[in-house]
């Protein structure tokens, strides 16, 4: 047997089709398990993020808390992206030939999509709350540092340029260098340079201001990252809406096939009932005919009997 003949063998083609079906089934199981596990992790992470967000602006608000919060948010955002990919891969899997298995997969996808959508909505809600608290914190810090509010950022100097003017007019570079304009050189009325004590006080003040500016820059960076994460979640919601729409069309097709099959089954049942009724009527007619023949035979027999007896 040649290779082409071997390849065209119907039995071998059927084997490959069965293997492909098994591969599709195992891949569907793997993807659903991965997506379900991620949804559970997202739900758990949202609860932890919510607790940490509630601590912002309180006595428990620390640098370590904010670092942990941002790490948890970034991790949860990545889980959401991975889950979205799993659901897309599920939608792209070939449909099984069995209609019952198609319905089973459809229900699993719907349940996963709904659970993921709920978890994602809760995550976005807590993200927005975290961003709101971060903005409030930055606004307070900017006010305490004498910087313009964020709403005036477009018409005011950028606080994260190379040099930042603080409330008292002193220029502080973010790299730690201190600049002083000629008009603001610190001298006493006799033109004498400040004492060591005064210099130490000024140095401490500048270090505190620099620390505040660094904190503001870090928190505004966190806000931008939060906003980017929120945009990612919005994009995932759009993907979910598209998948739900496509699944709806596929479900309509499946339901149409099921409805057609049901119509054919009902038609077959009706034909069977008609055939059964016809058989019953035929049997009834046959019974009546037999009874009539028996009666006629009995009458003929009686007539012959009495005739011969005479």
From TrEMBL:
Organism: Branchiostoma lanceolatum
Broad class of the protein's primary localization: membrane
Region (Disordered), start-end ranges: 1-35, 88-110, 127-162
Family, similarity comment: Belongs to the syntaxin family.
Gene Ontology molecular function terms on file: SNAP receptor activity; SNARE binding
Compositional bias per record (Polar residues), positions renumbered to this chain: 26-35, 92-101
Top-level taxon: Eukaryota
One GO CC annotation: recycling endosome membrane
TM helices/strands, residue ranges: 286-308
Name of the protein: Syntaxin-12
Function: SNARE promoting fusion of transport vesicles with target membranes. Together with SNARE STX6, promotes movement of vesicles from endosomes to the cell membrane, and may therefore function in the endocytic recycling pathway. Through complex formation with GRIP1, GRIA2 and NSG1 controls the intracellular fate of AMPAR and the endosomal sorting of the GRIA2 subunit toward recycling and membrane targeting.
UniProt-listed SUPFAM superfamilies: t-snare proteins
Lineage: Eukaryota, Metazoa, Chordata, Cephalochordata, Leptocardii
Record has Disulfide bond as a keyword: no
GO terms under biological process: intracellular protein transport; vesicle docking; vesicle fusion
């Amino acid at each position: 047997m040649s290779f082409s003949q071997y390849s065209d063998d119907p039995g071998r083609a059927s084997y490959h089709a069965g293997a492909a079906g098994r591969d599709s089934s195992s891949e569907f199981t793997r993807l659903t398990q991965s997506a379900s596990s991620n949804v559970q992790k997202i739900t758990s992470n949202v609860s932890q993020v919510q607790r940490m967000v509630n601590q912002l602006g309180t006595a428990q608000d620390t640098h370590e808390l904010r670092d942990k919060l941002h790490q948890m948010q970034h991790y949860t955002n990545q889980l959401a992206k991975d889950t979205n990919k799993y659901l897309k891969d599920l939608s792209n899997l070939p449909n099984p030939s069995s209609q019952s298995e198609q319905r089973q997969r459809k229900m699993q996808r719907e349940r996963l999509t709904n659970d993921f959508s709920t978890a994602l909505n809760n995550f976005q809600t807590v993200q927005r709350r975290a961003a709101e608290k971060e903005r409030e914190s930055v606004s307070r810090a900017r006010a305490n540092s004498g910087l313009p509010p964020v709403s005036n950022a477009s018409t005011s100097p950028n606080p994260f340029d190379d040099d930042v003017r603080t409330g008292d007019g002193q220029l502080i570079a973010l790299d730690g260098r201190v600049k002083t304009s000629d008009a603001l050189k610190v001298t006493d009325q006799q033109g004498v340079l400040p004492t060591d004590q005064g210099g130490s006080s000024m140095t401490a003040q500048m270090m505190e201001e620099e620390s505040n500016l660094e904190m503001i820059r870090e928190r505004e960076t966190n806000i931008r990252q939060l906003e980017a994460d929120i945009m990612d979640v919005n994009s995932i919601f759009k993907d979910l809406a598209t998948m739900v729409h496509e699944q709806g069309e596929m479900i309509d097709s499946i339901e149409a096939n099921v409805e057609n099959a049901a119509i054919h089954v009902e038609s077959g049942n009706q034909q069977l009932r008609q055939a059964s009724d016809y058989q019953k009527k035929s049997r009834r007619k046959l019974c009546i005919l037999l009874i009539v023949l028996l009666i006629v035979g009995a009458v003929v027999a009686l007539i012959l009997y009495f005739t011969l007896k005479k």
